[in-house]
Amino acid sequence: MYKSIVILFSIIIMLISCRKEDFSNLSDVVYIRNAGADMPAYIYGNASEKTFIILLHGGPGNNALDFRTSKSAKELEKKYAIVYWQQRGQGSSEGNFDADEMSIDLMTDDLNAVLKVIRYKYGNDCNFFLLGHSWGGELGSAFLIKNNNQSQIKAWIEVDGAHDIPKVNIEAAKMLLNIGYEQIAQNNSTKEWRAIVNYISQIDTNNIDIKTGREINRKAHEAEKYLLNDNIIQEPNGLTMQNVGIMYQQDWLTGIISVTYTYINNNNFYNEIETTSFTNRLNKITIPCLFLWGKYDFVVPQQLGIDAYNMVNTSNKKLVIFDKSGHFPMENQADKFVNEVVDFIDKNN
Amino acid sequence: MRTIVLIQFLIIYISVFSQSTDSSFVKQNKIHYSFSYFGYNLIKPGLNINISYKLTSKKSKNIITKKSGRIKDKSTTQQFILGGNIGFLWYPHSHSAVFNFYQIIYKKIKPAKNKFSTIGIGPGVYRSIYPETYEITDNNEVRKIYFAGETYFAPVLSFGGGKNLQNKVLKSRFINTNLMFLFNYNTGVVPLLIIEIGFKIK
């Protein structure tokens, strides 16, 4: 009796240990420890071709899993694996590090650590596509122009990326004014647009300080809501049960409080983000590039996409403007977004 | 260092409370046990086991006779209790955590209504436990870390209330709101809001 129990137990252990991971439907959680931060990477999707989209989420302060609630993510996961990496001090990232040590440079080291760990876990033949949205565009640009980092990446996808915030502020102010007058003339949300136009008119666009920049950012988000209400921007897909599940998985309350400490109270890092411009260094990028921008993105206006497209040093590049989108084309025009990303990845894989 | 502190807390917890289950304490009705659902933001599940020791108990009689002749019993019992807690939290498809905290609890009982309210405060430790974890070594190599996690100093502030039950096993039911403050979480402090629903048993 005792003997048969031992044999049965051994067989079960062998079966469990020999179980081959299903690469076509990954659902993994891996923590990456680097320089005091413990950063989870949630990896979902189809990795049968070893193609990984490394998502650089926005903010700083957003949650990587926000992107997973979009229809685009669901479609992309059918073809590729997406690595939802929570950047240090954000989302459900933990650890213990000094706020003064925070810098864009340190976060590019974190990204290097993520790539190393993914390769270690899934093999050296992994193909990495970097997808940066908003602040993720700034982080991705910083990563790609540093050392020889871009040699690890197959291609760069920048979605409404803020690689030059001083320019973001100037362009956003211009755009709020132009579109504002246009909307007032068309009798769309007139009262709200007047308030925005009045505020922006008083700004000296040649001298925008950090405080004013943040206020412009707030107005930019407001403006997008008005365009959504007036059906100029396409309504994102509704809430699904899967989204509810993802929101449950997100540690949003802890994330918000933690990020307040890490970023808002750390003025040095925040100032670095707000004053850094990568536009003139984008010519160091030589890998294939895809720039995806919402026409009505006031948060990071399309002019930044046009600049990036012109600056990168590759002939394999494409700029797509989504005519019914704001700052989140992956939500506003999900089908088009997915088609563009899939075409680009398949072409460059 | 933090792991050592955590282990010390656990050893103290086990030794103190295992010794104090001495029959004389139990007979004096000073030791109580309770178990509870311990949900972070209510919805992230966890379990807490509590052992409490009644330090002081003071009854104050206050019976009012109304003009109508009705008698109203407004007597109260005030107690100070020492509580020890141990449990875990589960963050589905992410990670989990274990915790251990101690509290001084002030409890006010209204015997006439069989109801009570509590407020407690005290220190604790919280250890998050990560799944598969890797780090980059100084040689720029990837190394797997076993039993990875982060330990935080975690004082807990609780307030709540409940009702005594006329049941042989379940002596009372209670609901508590706990604020567990994790120091140093990333670069500062993070409070966890934990709703606790449980029963006190003999």
Q: Supply the helix-strand structural class of chain A.
A: alpha/beta
Instruction: Report the sheet with the most strands of chain A, covering strand number, pairing sense and barrel closure.
Output: 9 strands, mixed
Percent of sequence in beta strands of chain B: over 45%
**Which regions of chain A have little confidence, pLDDT < 50, spanning 5+ residues?**
none
The outline of chain B comes out as: elongated
Percent of residues in helices of chain A comes to 40-55%
For the sheet with most strands of chain B, the description reads:
8 strands, antiparallel, barrel
Structure, explained:
The complex is a heterodimer of chains A (349) and B (202). Helix content of chain A is 48%, strand content 16%. In chain A, strands 1, 2, 3, 4, 5, 6, 7, 8 and 9 form a nine-stranded mixed sheet that branches. Chain B is mainly β and 202 residues long. The two termini of chain B are 37 Å apart. The longest helix of chain B is centred in the first third of the chain and has 18 residues. At the A-B interface, strand 1, strand 2, strand 5, helix 3 and helix 9 of A face strand 9 and strand 14 of B.
